[in-house]
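yo

u said u wanted the structure for the complex thing, so here. seqs first:
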Amino acid sequence: AQSVSQHNHHVILSEAASLELGCNYSYGGTVNLFWYVQYPGQHLQLLLKYFSGDPLVKGIKGFEAEFIKSKFSFNLRKPSVQWSDTAEYFCAVRNSGNTPLVFGKGTRLSVIA
Amino acid sequence: DVKVTQSSRYLVKRTGEKVFLECVQDMDHENMFWYRQDPGLGLRLIYFSYDVKMKEKGDIPEGYSVSREKKERFSLILESASTNQTSMYLCASSSGRGWDTQYFGPGTRLTVL
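structre next:
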């Protein structure tokens, strides 16, 4: 069965620092990859997704992620974080076809001034 | 915009009560999902449905059941609530196309006393 690992439970960064959140999945076939974000008190919303094509995907609010098939990874990056990026970030993977998403345990990001 | 609504944001119930959590989506989506979200555990799939009157068990179905009598509505039922079912419950929906995004509702925070 598919599983998703997010290696960082809680990340604390200063404003303007660069961000990279790790995500690895286990199943090696065709996958769809997602990053969702949950701001405090708000519902989960899609940050970006990869289905096919260019492995470097750009999302909202300056986030991007790179799919590296050989490493089973889909790491999230942002060159310069802001206080408003404080949130919980979830990586999710879906095997090919119409199947449910499998989520990682999430990474809490705290950005301090 | 896709809208997924959940009947309550906060709910407090007593052990042994029967609890109904309702979810409605307005995008004519075929697929609907129920997850629970717990700190440090991420999102775990309880049940999902690909069509009216169809249901599939997710990873943690024990103690739960579901009902989907209409396409837009997916109900989660706790037959006899227990304290270990205190959690945040998230509903999601997606179209029946294999590569679509899952859209989430705001969540219901259930406390079982």
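The longest strand of chain A covers residues 87-95. The two ends of chain A are 41 Å apart (CA to CA).
cya
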